[in-house]
């Protein structure tokens, strides 16, 4: 019941946000700038409250999960299954983006002109430092405290796995005090999640009202071709994911979707899949997944399993090439696909990471990276769909791996 109340509140906030943003954009054009800036603070407060608890939650649950597995064979087995799922899901998503952007060709013969690329300058600058060296630095933590302070999920995951494996090597008696402490911490943080989630409707209202006030509704007609093709892609990806989910979970898939409807909606409205990470831990455990599987697979998924973002990356990169009239051969497109597969794995938790990866990849293949300025005005709306898809992909992977492991244990 509580879950439904929150869901209804979020829907109401979404509608109010759209209405408020529309009124400000069309009736009070002078107030757009200050209104957007101020109302967006509601979204910022919610996202920051969630970010505050992500690091302690990932660390405590992952260490406890691995140490409770106890058996290193099991850690390897679950990790192997998770990575096999993540890699195949990523490849399917990237391929889908490539096929659809070639089929619909939304960038060919476009009337959208690039007069001002200043909006893209910050992203272009950010992506210049994106190299193999940067990737390694991003993945391996220099200090646990720096990783915790900057919410680098991937770095926290790597430290936690090493810590958990080392802790599991001790006898149960020796490891018990540390385990008990971290177990209690994870439960306290999950209790905090329950309180923080009640600020989600405000966050949704702020994020949506700000976006609509700034861009108005015309942005949809201007980019109808691009958005239309992209949403067809997202829809196709959902069909694939849900079909695979049904083949593995059967009718329990509907129970899972019922459980994660609030996280899906929050991710959609706030364009942040990170914002629902703590709530996802809670809901997947309620769905019946073993805590040790959830606490191991979900943080890994947040680093490696971003299906919506993957599809978007090939879609956006080839769209920019089409706008500039650059014909890419099938070989070049497949090479780009593999480059995206690798570069995208180290940017989990980086704001607008998908865009930075697209800019870096365009530069690598001789496509003018300033072209990103073309899709910036509607990126917020694409981001809503990709965040929601990322959440669905991670829920399905965790539930599937839990089912396989339960069978083995039985």
UniProtKB/TrEMBL annotation:
Keywords: Cell membrane, Membrane, Transmembrane, Transmembrane helix, Transport. Its main location: membrane. It is found in: Cell membrane. It comes from the Bacteria. It is a multi-pass membrane protein. It holds the Pfam family SDF. The chain crosses the membrane at residues 45-70, 82-105, 153-171, 192-213, 225-249, 346-367. This is Dicarboxylate/amino acid:cation symporter. SUPFAM superfamilies: Proton glutamate symport protein (SSF118215). InterPro entries: Na-dicarboxylate_symporter, Na:dicarbo_symporter_sf.
């Amino acid at each position: 019941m509580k879950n439904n109340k929150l869901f209804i509140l979020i829907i109401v906030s979404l509608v109010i946000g759209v209405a408020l943003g529309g009124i400000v954009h069309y009736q009070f054009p002078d107030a757009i700038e200050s209104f957007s800036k101020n109302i967006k603070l509601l979204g910022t407060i919610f996202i920051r409250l969630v970010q505050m608890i992500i690091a302690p939650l990932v660390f405590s649950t992952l260490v406890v999960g691995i140490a409770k597995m106890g058996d290193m064979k099991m850690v390897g087995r679950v990790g192997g299954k998770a990575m096999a799922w993540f890699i195949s899901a990523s490849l399917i998503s990237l391929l889908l983006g490539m096929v659809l952007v070639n089929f619909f060709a939304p960038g060919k013969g476009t009337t959208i002109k690039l007069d001002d690329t200043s909006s893209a300058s910050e992203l272009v600058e950010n992506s210049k430092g994106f190299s193999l060296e940067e990737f390694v630095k991003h993945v391996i933590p220099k200090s646990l405290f720096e990783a915790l302070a900057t919410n680098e999920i991937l770095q926290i995951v790597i430290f936690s796995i090493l810590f958990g494996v080392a802790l599991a090597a001790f006898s149960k008696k020796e490891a018990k005090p540390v385990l008990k402490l971290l177990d209690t911490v994870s439960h306290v943080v999950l209790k905090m999640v329950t309180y923080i989630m009640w600020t989600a409707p405000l966050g949704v209202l702020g994020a949506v009202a700000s976006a609509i006030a700034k861009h108005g509704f015309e942005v949809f007609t201007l980019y109808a071709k691009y958005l239309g093709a992209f949403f067809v892609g997202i829809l196709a990806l959902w069909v694939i994911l849900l079909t695979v989910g049904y083949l593995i979970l059967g009718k329990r898939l509907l129970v899972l979707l019922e459980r994660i409807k609030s996280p899906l909606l929050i991710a959609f409205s706030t364009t942040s899949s990170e914002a629902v990470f703590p709530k996802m831990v809670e809901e997947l455990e309620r769905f019946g997944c073993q805590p040790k599987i959830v606490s191991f697979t979900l943080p890994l998924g947040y680093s490696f399993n971003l299906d919506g973002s993957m599809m978007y990356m090939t879609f956006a990169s080839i769209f920019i090439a089409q706008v500039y009239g650059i014909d890419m051969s099938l070989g070049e497109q497949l090479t780009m696909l593999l480059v995206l597969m690798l570069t995208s794995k180290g940017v989990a938790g980086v704001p607008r990471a998908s865009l930075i990866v697209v800019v870096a990849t365009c530069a690598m293949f001789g496509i003018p990276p300033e072209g990103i300025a073309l899709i910036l005005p509607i990126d917020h709306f694409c981001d809503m769909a990709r965040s929601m898809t990322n959440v669905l992909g991670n829920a399905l992977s965790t539930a599937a791996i839990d089912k396989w492991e339960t069978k083995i244990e039985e």
